[in-house]
Amino acid sequence: MTTNDVTLIATAAMGLETLVKSEVMDLGYTDVKSENGKITYKADYKGIARSNLWLRTADRVKLLTGEFNAYSFDELFEQTKALPWEDWLPEDAFIHVVGKSHKSTLYSVPDCQSIVKKAIVSRLQDQYKIYTNLEESGVRYKIEVAILKDKVTLTIDTTGAGLHKRGYRIEQGEAPLKQTLAASLVKLTNWTPDQPFVDPFTGSGTIAIEAALIGQNIAPGFNREFAAEEWEFLPPKMWDEALEEAEDLANYDQPLDIQGFDVDHRAIEMAQNNALEAGFADLIKWKQMNVKDFKPQTDVGYLVGNPPYGERLKDRPEVESIYKALGGIMKDYPKWSVYVMTSHEEFEKHYGTSASKKRKLFNGFIKTDYYQFFGKK
Ligand SMILES: C[S@@+](CC[C@H](N)C(=O)[O-])C[C@H]1O[C@@H](n2cnc3c(N)ncnc32)[C@H](O)[C@@H]1O
């Protein structure tokens, strides 16, 4: 181990762990472990910048500072205090502790938070030889104490606003997808950037914009900031190097055939504005269109959609007629691969075909299936 080594945890929404793990491995990190909702891996300092810049499907990246078992508040205090917090936090750090506890002896989260905070403050007072209260007037460090079956995991959040906040979505409609989920929907297909790509229910354009970012290999975090950029112990040049690497790897010359449609003209205006913000002025083609009028212009292609789900009973007949129309259209284009995410449990019945594969995904708190119909080769 050199002092430059860190252990990072990329958090993943339920069901997306394999995607996040493969993204971490694509970044070149090999010592990777995947558990429920978190991918733990070894990296160097620069890995903090690279992970935040590049991970499309993860929620955030945390720096692991300690792991131990604790069954009493004393044990929690002593083992937290034994960690070298002065390696990470300056003496004026603003220390914000959040917590969670599950199936553990120490179940009172507010108490655990306040003990962890006291232990860190006490450690810093000793190390920095401060005999009064800490001022906490500096950079904010969000520290998490997570306890699962009596095992305590302490982390510092490196990300800040969640990774889904790419910075381009200045406008959004009624039920926008998180950008991380939209990127996951694209990554779960076999689409390659040389193939046509259509989202016929584009709303604010999230899926199409994420496809364009993937298609041109643009780092999704390129236009935003991260909490760890303010950390003093990290060399500032690592951020510049990670940004330079992202600039070198972006393939702005990759031609793309990506289209987004929506029945609502206001959605199309929003999608256009968001795409402009993402830097794709003319790259994605937008059109106001009812999916019932969609007609693929090529033999082969990929359709990825997040249609209305019909959660309210009164919307069901309309939604079901949309599914039926889409199925009717796509059956004449057997070489197209179709991917639809919906919570409607009878989607396949209305679409008219059984999916090649289904995958359970959560859209926020809504349990959905991602229906995948593979095109004929
Ligand atoms: C769940 S939203 C999609 C949200 C989108 N993925 C986003 O991130 O903003 C469903 C979209 O389908 C559109 N829609 C509803 N009926 C449609 C139809 N018949 N044809 C095309 N679009 C339709 C709605 O206007 C809405 O924007």
Write the layout of secondary structure elements.
Elements: E1 5-11, H1 17-26, E2 32-35, E3 38-44, H2 45-54, E4 60-69, H3 73-81, E5 94-102, H4 109-128, E6 140-148, E7 151-157, H5 179-187, E8 197-199, H6 206-215, H7 237-249, E9 258-262, H8 265-278, E10 284-288, E11 301-305, H9 316-330, E12 336-342, H10 347-351, E13 357-363, E14 366-373
Parallel strand pairs: 5-6, 8-9, 8-11, 9-10, 11-12
Antiparallel strand pairs: 1-3, 1-4, 2-3, 4-7, 6-7, 12-14, 13-14
Helix pairs in contact: 2-7, 3-4, 5-6
Bound molecules: S-adenosylmethionine.
GO molecular function: methyltransferase activity
Pfam families: RlmL_1st, THUMP, UPF0020
Organism: Alkalibacillus filiformis
Descriptive overview:
The chain is α/β, with parallel strands linked by helices and 377 residues long. The protein folds into two domains: 5-157, VC0802-like, CATH 3.30.2130; 179-218 and 227-249 and 256-373, Rossmann fold, CATH 3.40.50.150. The chain is built from ten helices and 14 strands. It has helices spanning 17-26, 45-54, 73-81, 109-128, 179-187, 206-215, 237-249, 265-278, 316-330, 347-351, and strands spanning 5-11, 32-35, 38-44, 60-69, 94-102, 140-148, 151-157, 197-199, 258-262, 284-288, 301-305, 336-342, 357-363, 366-373. The strands form two sheets. A seven-stranded mixed β-sheet has the order 2-3-1-4-7-6-5. Strands 10-9-8-11-12-14-13 form a seven-stranded mixed β-sheet, with helices on one face. Strand 9, helix 8 and strand 10 form a beta-alpha-beta unit. Helix 2 crosses helix 7 (237-249), helix 3 packs parallel to helix 4 (109-128) and helix 5 packs across helix 6. The longest helix is centred in the first third of the chain and has 20 residues, at 109-128. The radius of gyration is 23 Å and the shape is elongated. The N and C termini lie far apart (48 Å). The structure holds S-adenosylmethionine. S-adenosylmethionine is lined by residues 172-173, 175-177, 200-201, 203-204, 206-207, 262-264, 267, 290-291, 306-308, 322. Its EC number is 2.1.1.-. It comes from Alkalibacillus filiformis. Keywords: Methyltransferase, Transferase. This is N6-adenine-specific DNA methylase. Residues 60-158 form the THUMP domain.
